[in-house]
Amino acid sequence: MKMATEQEALDLLKSVGVDYRRVDHSAIWTMDDPNTPEGLPEVKNLLLKDKKSDRYYLYLTDNHRVDFKSLTNQLGLGHSRLAFASEAQLEALLGVVSGMVTPLALMHDTDDQVTVLLNKSLQSLPEISAHPNINTATILMSYADLVRVLRAMGKVPVVIN
After folding, report:
1. Full-model pTM
2. Which of 126, 143, 101, 139 minimizes the C-alpha distance to 23?
3. Taking the domain 6-29+41-160, which CATH number applies?
């Protein structure tokens, strides 16, 4: 799989007509990274899978702990267990590595293997943050623009609690 690039992400935002703000910074690898600039919306980006090989991209605010039992119930997965996708799966499905997971990389899911899950609390944020396929910059946009970008990639997000 070809790795996702910054230019692809910026071209996508331009093609959809998204107004965004860009913040350049040192590489951010985790939510607790000391390089994280002050004032950025704290969000989590996770690629999850279940036993049947279904894949889920989960985007939520950082103050929410992932309740896997509740999430499997909301998705109607029964007794299936959700787990984090491997590094190899991240690269194969989205063209990114851990620390660079972003909704903008979903353009690489050309076989539509990933279901997008947006935590409802994201709607109340004044801005959504997302890496442009690199972790040395952050793009800030509205929730409505995020949904427009997802739809432009053929992704209809499922809003979860």
Report:
1. 0.89
2. 139
3. 3.90.960.10
